[in-house]
Amino acid sequence: MQIMKPHVALLASPGMGHVIPVLELAKRLTNHHNLHVTVFVVSSDQNTSVEQLSQLVINSPNEKLLHDVVLLRSDPDMSCLVDPDASIVTKILVMMRVCLPSLRSNISSMKFRPTALIVDLFGTEAMAVADEFEMLKYVFITTNAWYVATSIYTPTVEENVLDDHTNRKLPLKIPGCMPVRFEDTIEPFLYRNDPVFKWYLSLGMDMTKADGVLVNTWEDLESKSLEALRDTKMLGHIAKAPVYPIGPLARPVGPPPVLGNDDVLDWLDKQPAESVIYVSFGSGGTLSSKQMIELGWGLEMSQQRFIWVVRPPSDSDASGSYLTAEKGPAGFSDYLPDGFVDRTHNVGLIVPMWAPQAQILGHPSVGGFLSHSGWNSTLESIMNGVPMIVWPLYAEQKMNAAMLTEEFGVAVRSKEWPSSEMIVERDEIEMMVRRIMVDNEGGEMRYRVKQLKISALKASSQGGSSYNSLSRLAIECESSLQCLKVKAQGG
């Protein structure tokens, strides 16, 4: 039997922040570039099904995924492999390592093996599997090009420069890019003696060894950082691997993928245009008990309509529900100010644990988004023309928030970033909500974010910069397939 089109494998690490863009990439490669795609998803949740994952990217009842989704189960009891108190990054890395034999076995048993393997940033150890099977290997960074530039540059930085950044709190200068201020820095820099920092250094080096680095951004959004990654006078001599800006890859607006949330959209249907602020901290973000109380008071004092996705607080770990985003008790009254639900029932809607975010942000009644600044949520907000209040919690979210406020001008933020030591008080929350929803400043940001939306749609449409970027990747996979055919025929 003759292979008619190239076969590409994708590997997604646990957590919706990585699974969703990987599945969207699979969908784009399948539907727009005629590739056969197999998606491997690492999961520790024994209740997760392939059907549930596939539903995440279906946009209409008649649409079907044309690629395969394979679950690689990781032992849900990690206590024998990693300290229960270890960071979320350490736990994910262990889960990815445990699943490597299963990935290898699955690829080995395929009748028509993939010609390329695309891994996300937690899956770079799997590039060794690609080498074993003589596959092309790509790294898919599900966040922005500024993060890529920082990650690739960091392993080359002298120790004293890193000391100046982490100890003296001086900006880390990245050639050709915005400097990374200490207050915006990513978590690995804060714990340089932790294994996570060593992993971060290896990530930067692994990216340079790949056949290409895919980034969930587009040319017009981050032209400066992308130029730096290509220019040999700035970062090009370090980056080496070609950079493919292929974004935005974000969930499109369509019918809710999970039944049981019609009441949220029904409630929105009854609200005036651009009158509701949506409050959510992503699939894994959590606030402290005190901060939830202050947020509740701030929303109430703002006198604005709101939808708030509430999950139990965590006083120790802002990413505490990253791997358990849809689990936990559905109750919420114990976490909120006394009488809050009764006092706000005419203007607010509380949603326990999970909500159909893409559909909410795409609703005409939504006029603002209080967000943790995760890149998926950021792109979904941009794609729906919704300005933001940025409230970063972990990972690279402070960098994202800095870009949104200072470079793009589509968001407002607290005077100081929230942390375990610092609480954003209700008066400031009220002020930020009103800046977005009531003041003229909010209207100006709304205009700017809608211009970014136009730019994003242009980039991802046929003939656009991101579409063409993925086309080049598809051509490389086709060329690799042709080489395999010639080799198989003894040519």
What does this structure look like?
InterPro entries: UDP_glucos_trans, UDP_glycos_trans_CS. The strands form two sheets. The protein has a seven-stranded parallel β-sheet with strand order 3-2-1-4-5-6-7, with helices on both faces. By secondary structure, it is α/β, with parallel strands linked by helices. It has two domains: 7-251 and 462-490, Glycogen Phosphorylase B (Rossmann fold); 261-453, Rossmann fold (3-Layer(aba) Sandwich), CATH 3.40.50. 42% of the residues lie in helices and 13% in strands.
Q: Which descriptors apply to this entry?
A:
single chain, 491 residues, alpha/beta, Rossmann fold, 2 domains, 7-stranded parallel beta sheet, 6-stranded parallel beta sheet, 20 helices, globular
Q: In summary, what is this structure?
A:
This protein is of the alpha/beta class. It is 42% helix and 13% strand.
Write the layout of secondary structure elements.
Blueprint: E1 7-12, H1 16-33, E2 36-43, H2 50-55, E3 68-73, H3 88-98, H4 100-108, E4 116-120, H5 127-132, E5 136-141, H6 145-153, H7 159-166, H8 187-190, H9 195-209, E6 212-215, H10 223-230, H11 236-239, E7 243-245, H12 262-269, E8 276-280, H13 289-302, E9 305-310, H14 340-344, E10 348-352, H15 357-361, E11 366-371, H16 375-383, E12 388-390, H17 397-407, E13 411-413, H18 426-437, H19 440-460, H20 465-488
Parallel strand pairs: 1-2, 1-4, 2-3, 4-5, 5-6, 6-7, 8-9, 8-11, 9-10, 11-12, 12-13
CATH topology of the largest domain: Rossmann fold
Find the structural class using helix and strand composition. alpha/beta
- Relative strand content: 5-15%
Instruction: Please identify the top-level CATH class of the largest domain.
Output: Alpha Beta
Strand order of the largest sheet: 3-2-1-4-5-6-7
Which quaternary structure do these chains form? single chain
Tally of individual helices: 20
Q: What would you call the shape? A: globular
Rounded to the nearest angstrom, the distance between the terminal CA atoms is 19 Å
Helix content: 40-55%
The CATH homologous superfamily of the largest domain is called Glycogen Phosphorylase B
Keywords: Glycosyltransferase, Transferase
Pfam families: UDPGT
Protein name: Glycosyltransferase
Family: Belongs to the UDP-glycosyltransferase family.
